[in-house]
Each structure stands twice: as C-alpha cells, then as structure tokens.
Amino acid sequence: SVLLPDGTPDVHWRRACGGQKLRDIMLDSNIELYGPYSKPLSNCAGVGTCATCMVEIVNGKELLNPRTDIEKEKLKRKPKNWRLACQTNVGNPDFNRIGRHTTIARVESSRMEYP
C-alpha cells in the first residue's frame, strides 16, 4: 500500500453509475492507479493481463462483482479483498438506465513502490 507523508493510507471515495469498471472510475477521477514503473512497461490497457492495476478494497466489496476468472488466476496468492481495477465492476448495471448512483467501495491504492 502507498502511505501518505503523515503515515495514512492513500484512500479515495467516489460515486459512480452502476456497471462502470473501477479502473475507468479511478482514471476519470485522476486517482493514480499505476506506479511509476508499471505505466510505461506493462500496462495492458485494461484487459487484465498485466495485473498492475491491483487495488485493495477496504470497504464496500459487496457493491462489486465477484472476482473474474482472470482475477482468480492473477490474484490467487493475494487476499480476497485485492482486486484488479480493470476487472472490477461497480454496482448494478441496471442503475445506468435510471441514472442513479451507487457509492463505490473505499479503495486503498496498492501500487508497488520500488527502491
């Protein structure tokens, strides 16, 4: 996890329409998702092959879709609350039709920090 200078985790709250990918919500909100080394080297543009968009879901995991087969493979040694933002759908896609918003999960960025 990334800690801010005061030692607190880098946690963000956002609202979104149901059915959106967590990756898209984070990028649209200018929330840093990729560490400095993963962006140019191995960002797969959201198809789930690089696993560089890994995040820890701190609260609200019941608002998200179950882990996909890609996540089950890429995250098999990670705790159940870790997800790939590109594979994680937020809320119920039916909410899009009526314009309602769902409060998305509290997400703690889990970018890798390299020395």
Automatic annotation (TrEMBL):
Q: What is this protein called?
A: BnaC01g44590D protein
Q: Which UniProt keywords apply?
A: 2Fe-2S, Iron, Iron-sulfur, Metal-binding
What CDD domains does the annotation carry? fer2
Q: Which SUPFAM superfamilies match?
A: 2Fe-2S ferredoxin-like
- Per its UniProt record, what InterPro entries does this chain match? 2Fe-2S_ferredoxin-like_sf, 2Fe-2S_ferredoxin-type, Adrenodoxin-like, Beta-grasp_dom_sf
Xref: Gene3D superfamilies? 3.10.20.30
Q: Which Pfam families match?
A: Fer2
